[in-house]
Amino acid sequence: MRKDSAGTGSRPRGLRAALAVSAVGLLAVVGAVVLPGNASAASTLGASAAERGGRYFGTAVAANKLNDSAYATILNREFNQVTAENEMKIDALQPQQGQFTYGTADRIVQHARSRGMQVRGHTLAWHSQQPGWMQNMSGSTLRTAMLNHVTQVATHFRGQIAWWDVVNEAFADGSSGARRDSNLQRTGNDWIEAAFRAARQADPNAQLCYNDYNIDNWTDAKTQAVYRMVQDFKNRGVPIDCVGLQSHFTGGSNYPSNYRTTLSSFAALGVDVHITELDIRNAPTDAYRNVVNDCLAVARCKGITVWGIRDSDSWRSNESPLLFDGGGNKKPAYDAVLTALNNGTPGTGNPTTPPTTPPGGTGCTATMTPGQVWGDRYNTSVTVSGASTWSVVVAITSPQKISSTWSGNPTWDSSGNVMTMRSNGSGNTFGFTTMMNGNSSARPQIRSCTAG
Ligand code: 9MR
What we know:
alpha/beta, TIM Barrel, Immunoglobulin-like, 2 domains, 8-stranded parallel β-barrel, globular, binds ligand 9MR
């Protein structure tokens, strides 16, 4: 592996050394030198979230609105993650048994991925929105059909979905802490883990989530019950990577003051947490700000998805719970969210822990290895497996800046904090030096690895 001179020696590097590195790396260094304070304050939700440790800010999307130019303009400008609001549900993808209709879902996935947005798959197994033929099934016939659906759908989208909601809403409301009664539950208590195992087998690189609503308040019986299930799955090696908190603070359910405890408690089990369907009645600025700050405070909180773009797009439009009004104008809640993101200090977790499987991309896996650390900077190397030509997206936490790279061709987004490194024929390991610029704890995050 060849390294260029910058960043590999033991004495601190100055601007002079930076001149030896790529022009883009130079720009990054100069930017860090001449622009004081919060120089990189992002102007969109997705860009700002990406700067906070490679997080995402996403939205639910309805395919039939993609041709609405006002809608698509906001979507494409603000968000770097999407969830299909209805198009990847069971009734949409398998309306007749054995007949799969992927066209509309594919359109959403294509729209997102062609613009660099990550996709959440929602949802493989659920008691609701089952097609008629499935609603009428029970027992082993239903179990087999459910697992076949999981396998077929996860296989169809393999490599394109960053996170699957493998199972949605399987716990009962109220104080029982019990599973929700449903035709799926009546096939046996192990239906959830069976679905996770099938999903892992079909799409091994996707992150697999359990997703539910009313699991936001740490002391609620439902929250505790889901927590115990995830703990049990981790103890027994059932493949689960993440928990999605829908966080519909609509319809009478409020933001709880112990929300951050809930996020960090799930995270402490060794799973990522995602806020998957956020909307808040009347869009109060303080509650939206609190949700953002709580997510930023928990290193394993990977991002926030709002359940629609404009109030008029919301499933509860009468509550005006979203960040844009019906005319597509930014509401005060939008400003509160963007400011909280821009001001946020992301939780960093343990910086020496090598990052995990990248959540996005397809056809390869990138593994990050921490390198030498100096007082003002540190090195990182990334090894790609599964492909000989590839591109790997790496996100840096501002004010840190990558100052030099080796063994790859880097390009950068407008913030300078997201680098796409393409193979340049010099092998499957590339590296880079990151200037800490006052933040010594944050470490890079791999966002995706894409073959070809
Ligand atoms: O927003 C969705 C709405 O358009 C559908 O009619 C409804 C049908 O079940 O599902 C809504 O989305 C739900 C999501 O899939 C799961 N969590 C609750 C969401 C709001 O009901």
